[in-house]
Amino acid sequence: MFTGIVQGIAAIEDITAEPGLSTFAIRLPSDKAGGVSIGASVAINGTCLTVTRQEDSVLYFDAMQETLRLTTLGDLKTGDQVNFERAARIGDEIGGHLLSGHIHTTARIVEILRPENNVTLWFEVPDEWTRYIFPKGYIAINGASLTIGEVRGNRFNIHLIPETLRATTFGTCEEGQRVNIEIDSQTQTIVDTLARMGYDRPAPTL
Lumazine-binding domain location, by residue (predicted)? Predict the structure, then answer.
């Protein structure tokens, strides 16, 4: 379980591709890699992965082809930077919202606006996921718990303050880039329950 509060930026040291499996070597900041045990869960760009090996600050993770297909991990290259969060522990402050680390879909950044002292990102998601996206609702993007701003059809935006830009990879994102999306589980449950009762949400309008 994760909180959506990104703990920092890590770097892809190496990727080893084998039939049906890719192994990622990811370097965490030295002060964030202590006390990690083999088998621990770490969210990499919001995707829950299991630590298989550790060499100092470098953690190793295996990702199956299905994981690579459903997330943006298959797009990563050596030298790329990623958001990371180690699994939450009982007693930790939940500053964002509870996440499973299971990615539902991906979205594409379609526009970046840079008004003074903040950044607004517009995303486009597959139509079937728009039913769970509401203004002021929660969403996790590349593992970061964020609040949705406006919603227009299959597009929505988020507003980022300087601290979020500093602490995550959003500060260097580009238009056209794909990101991982985890829908808020409570929102999904409510929408699906209402749909089963005949109160389905109407299709989005542009």
Answer: 1-97, 98-194
Per-residue pLDDT, 198:
85
Q: Which secondary structure element, helix H or strand E, spans residue 61, and what is its range?
A: strand 58-64
Q: State the pLDDT at residue 206.
A: 52
Of 87, 73, 88, give the one whose Cα is nearest residue 26.
73
- Residue 81 shares a structural domain with residue 124: no
Split into its structural domains, the chain has a count of 2
In a domain, 12, yes or no: yes
Domain with 163 in it: 105-196
Q: Which residues contact 152 (CB under 8 A, 6 or more apart)?
A: 206
**128, 166: one domain:** yes
Contact at 8 Å (CB) between 121 and 171? no
Q: What is the model's pLDDT at position 91?
A: 62
Mean pLDDT of 177-204: 86
Q: Residue 95 has what pLDDT?
A: 65
Q: Are residues 184 and 136 in the same domain?
A: yes
pLDDT digits (tens, 9 = 90+) for 51-79: 999 999 999 999 999 999 999 999 999 99
